[in-house]
Design brief:
One of its GO terms (cellular component) is endoplasmic reticulum membrane. Ethanolamine phosphate transferase involved in glycosylphosphatidylinositol-anchor biosynthesis. Transfers ethanolamine phosphate to the GPI second mannose. It holds the Pfam family Phosphodiest. Belongs to the PIGG/PIGN/PIGO family. PIGG subfamily. With 895 residues, the chain is of the alpha/beta class. Among the domains are: 263 residues, Alkaline Phosphatase, subunit A, CATH 3.40.720.10; 328 residues, no CATH class. The chain is built from 34 helices and ten strands. Helix 13 runs parallel beside helix 16 and helix 21 runs parallel beside helix 29. The longest helix has 33 residues. The radius of gyration is 31 Å and the shape is globular.
């Protein structure tokens, strides 16, 4: 590779993060909002009706899915008794995607529809740009009331969103998912004291433990029911005080989830379980309007219990029940069941009319129409051509009724339906209105990534031309992948694409290497056949390990079987650790004498024992059902082990081993015949296993089988690079990942960390989710080096002659002598490797950006394409630049 082509490759990689960030700023802008606090409009209809409540206790249980409260197996027995008695009114709230805490809290408090950018900001613990300090909300309205004071305990997302809002507060990091108890005890310890206080009119509690249990072990974890009972006891304690304490007589208690969770325990996407949190209004006063509902009960659909409302409806409902104006940016509709609190029809009409007038202000900003300003302006209502015309027609219906009756006193039965119809239609239209994309930035970023793609193509063109027919398969791969990005169903089920491609690529390798083998040497042909067969069988196991995506996420898979038979799971895990110990034990202290080698094997065995102990203790804490086969004393001993300390010992041990291997290699070279690169690869594999869910640890045995089969073929450099692309993506989905935000695994985010650290947690989260691709990135470097040190399994002399001819045409080749054989080593292999990876990365990013731009008004833009772009950002910056280029260069330098 000439200097000019190297410069083009550097430029191509430098343009990748630039294009990604430019596109993000145009694709994920903040939605505009109306500043300031709303005030009651002076209407001719009189003062707003009196509110039935003057205080609210707002209790959020993170990830409180509807069936956790309303289902047969619920631990919320006291809450269910209130629902049956009529002291509580239940709902299922529709939490729109993205089902992440920060955007859901924004929707609950302001009634608006947050930007998808909040998904990114939700993970930025130190972010302050997402504040709602200048935006209207029911918290701001409560505080603005005479004597208004707010208190908050729990998830510090509230403190970040509402700075300088709370008179008393105690926040807890929402990302410390290893903790099930302290995050909740930190809230509950304040309950008794606050119930005795009378100086507040708004009290927020946000519990996190139930969400953490879901992330670690799923919704069916044995820890889930005790946590539900614990939360129900908090409800009982609070409700009992409302009944008995005079200063709490007009207090409304609300229990709700900010979002739900899927069957894997995660959230962020649009699966029914994620979008269906429970919502319960509780007060002795509710008996006036409710005769009670059967509870527990069965859902009418997937997690749909009782009446289903929009989560944004909470804001205007609280405005009416507590007596303050509807927040200015609200898109919610007052919950009609609560209108029965007001006996007069005029009061009911006025409540809904004020809600409609507030929403009309937002509608006029988006759909300026003469009918909204002039009640006599002409409107085409027979066949409206747009959503704006339809809204104008519905508003005209309301104004015509008022004008026809000559005032504000039409019968409620006559005027309420048109007002409710306008509000619900406006809510639906405005909630689904496309974001204010900066199309110019989208086009600029597409141009930048196109330049990156062209530069990468030019830089590796001679290498691709020399290395035969692999380029056709690579071109077909990129073309098919690009086409797939324009179909939402294919994006949701992307794992199938990579499984099919991996099978096809293995078959192509068999044909290629079988043709290259000496036709008279059946042993070579048999070796090629067995190697490819081993890869195909391994790939079949990988495909069945975790069912992911959307359609088959709950289908039976190997992990489900292993959860039923944990002894089989731990047998496989033990096999992995024995394999790891044997491989590393052969290399540590090699070449330093027999005593040093014995000492090295002892160190490896000790470190492996700690790895196994950590995995057992970790599982005993988070998924005790997977350690139920152990004696009770053994489980108690595991629960007593300090997880943070064990993880730190592991990380220190692995780091120390790395330092020793580098030093030993510097002193003794490839002592014992083991390369430093191979030793470091095994250390990396151990680190990846630490950061992997327990059920997925045996996958590394299968990945190693795939690698060994590929290694015996001795693939060409271009075949190695394409193999790393194909198997890296297949392994990503095999670990249970998908293109949904809900599949992000946070369970190992705090290994060795006792508190939130944005850099450390970010790295650990990335490694946990991209462990499979990281394995294949390291393996590809190892394969490139093996190719340079030994011939393929067929006629070595013919291969050397062929390789010399190829490399003679390309600059940068050199010939080295190892023993009695001449072998060819291309010192530019890594540059060419990075070049092909850059071509694929830039090409795939171009396809994703183009799809998001062209389909920005698509129905699934926020549920499918936007999450896909977030994953593309991670693949392009963290994986390609950080792992493939950064870590790959570091590993290559050890060769």
């Amino acid at each position: 590779m000439t200097l000019g082509r190297r410069a083009l490759l550097v430029l191509a990689n430098a343009l990748i993060p630039i294009s990604i960030l430019v596109f993000a700023t145009g694709f994920f802008p903040y939605k505009p909002f109306l500043p300031g606090l709303a005030e009651y409009q002076k209407l001719e209809y009189g003062d707003p009706p009196a509110a039935p409540f003057d205080k609210v206790v707002f209790m959020v249980v993170d990830a409180l899915r509807s069936d956790f409260v309303f289902g047969e197996g619920s631990g919320f027995k006291f809450t269910q008794s209130l629902i049956s008695a009529g002291s509580a009114i239940p709902f299922t709230a529709n939490a729109r995607s993205p089902t992440i805490t920060m955007p859901r809290v924004k929707a609950i408090t302001t009634g608006s529809i947050p930007s998808f950018l909040d998904v990114i900001l939700n993970f930025a613990e130190s972010d302050t740009t997402s504040t709602l300090a200048n935006q209207d909300s029911w918290l701001a309205q409560l505080k603005a009331k005479e004597g208004g004071k707010l208190v908050m305990y729990g998830d510090d997302t509230w403190l970040k969103l509402f700075p300088d809002t709370f008179g008393r507060a105690d926040g807890t990091s929402s990302f410390f998912v290893s903790d099930f108890t302290e995050v909740d005890n930190n809230v509950t310890r304040h309950v008794q004291g606050e119930l005795r206080q009378s100086d507040w009119n708004g009290w927020i509690m946000h519990y996190l433990g139930l969400d953490h249990i879901g992330h670690k072990a799923g919704p069916h974890s044995p820890n889930m029911l005790p946590k539900q009972i614990e939360m129900d006891n908090v409800v009982k304690q609070t409700y009992t005080a409302i009944e008995s304490e005079p200063h709490l007589q007009s207090t409304l208690l609300i229990l709700c989830g900010d979002h739900g969770m899927n069957e894997a325990g995660n959230h962020g996407g649009s699966a029914p379980g994620e979008t269906s949190p429970a919502l319960v209004f509780m007060s002795p006063k509710l008996k006036k309007i409710s005769k009670g509902s059967k509870c527990p009960t069965l859902p009418s659909g997937d997690f749909d219990y009782y009446t289903k409302i929009e989560q944004s409806d909470i804001a205007p409902t609280l405005a009416g029940l507590l007596g303050f104006p509807v927040p200015r940016n609200n898109l919610g509709v007052f919950i009609l069941q609560f209108l029965d609190f007001w006996d007069k029809d005029d009061d009911r009409v006025q409540l809904m009319l004020r809600n409609a007038l507030q929403m009309l202000t937002i509608v006029k900003e988006t759909f300026p129409h003469p009918a909204f300003e002039n009640p006599f302006a002409p409107v085409k209502c027979g066949n409206p051509s747009s959503a704006g015309d339809e809204l104008a027609c519905k508003w005209r219906t309301i104004t015509d009724i008022f004008h026809s009756t000559g005032g504000f006193n039409p019968a409620a039965a006559h005027i309420l339906p048109p007002i409710v119809e306008f509000c619900t239609y406006a809510q639906d239209v405005m909630s689904s209105t496309a974001s204010n994309y900066d199309v110019s930035k989208l086009i600029i970023s597409i141009c930048i990534i196109s330049v990156s793609f062209i530069c990468a193509m030019v830089s590796v063109r001679p290498f691709i031309t020399i290395h035969g027919s692999s380029r056709y398969f690579g071109a077909l791969l990129l073309i098919l992948y690009s086409i797939m990005m324009f179909a939402s169903s294919y994006v949701e089920e992307e794992q199938n694409f990579w499984y099919w491609i991996a099978s096809g690529w293995t078959a192509w390798l068999f044909v290629y290497h079988a043709r290259q083998a000496n036709s008279k040497d059946y042993r070579s042909l048999l070796l090629v056949t067995l190697s490819c067969l081993q890869m195909l069988i391994s790939l079949r196991l990988v495909r069945r390990w975790n069912q992911t995506g959307q359609k088959f996420a709950g289908a039976p898979d190997i992990v489900a079987y292993l959860r039923q038979y944990p002894t089989h799971l731990w047998l496989l895990i033990t096999v992995y650790y024995l394999y790891s110990a044997l491989r590393r034990g052969q290399e540590y202290f090699a070449g330093n004498g027999e005593q040093a080698e014995i000492l090295g094997r002892g160190a490896v065995i000790s470190l492996t024992a700690i790895e196994l102990a950590f995995k057992l203790a970790f599982t005993a804490h988070d998924a005790p059902e997977l350690t139920s086969f152990l004696p009770k004393a053994a489980v108690e001993g595991l629960l007593g082990l300090p997880l943070v300390g064990l993880a730190r010992v592991l990380f220190i041990g692995l780091t120390g081993s790395c330092v020793w291997l580098v030093w030993n290699h510097h002193i003794n070279g490839n002592a014992g015949g083991f390369s430093l690169l191979h030793s470091l690869h095994l250390l990396l594999l151990s680190f990846l296993a630490v950061q992997t869910r327990t059920e997925n640890v045996p996958l590394y045995i299968i990945f190693s089988l795939q690698y060994s089969g590929l290694s015996r073929l001795s693939p060409t450099p271009s075949q190695t690079t394409l193999s790393s692309i194909v198997f890296a993506h297949a392994s990503f989905f095999a670990l249970g990942n998908s293109n949904a935000i809900s599949s992000i695994d946070l369970s190992n985010a705090y290994n060795g960390i006792s508190g939130y650290n944005v850099l450390a947690v970010g790295v650990l989260v990335f490694v946990s989710n991209w462990a499979g691709p990281i394995f294949w990135s390291s393996a590809s470097i190892l394969l490139l080096c093996e190719r340079a040190s030994r011939p393929p399994p067929y006629d070595p002399r013919a291969w050397i002659k062929e390789e010399r001819a190829r490399l003679a045409a390309a600059s940068g080749g050199q010939t080295t002598v190892r023993g009695d054989k001449e072998v060819t080593k291309n010192r530019n292999s890594f540059s060419h490797h990075v070049g092909i990876l850059t071509v694929f990365t830039a090409g795939s990013l171009l396809a994703v950006m183009a799809a998001c731009t062209l389909l920005r008004t698509h129905l699934f833009i926020w549920t499918v394409f936007s999450p896909k772009y977030l994953y593309a950002m991670a693949w392009g910056i963290a994986y390609h630049l950080g792992v493939s280029v950064g870590l790959g260069a570091l590993l290559w330098s050890t060769n």
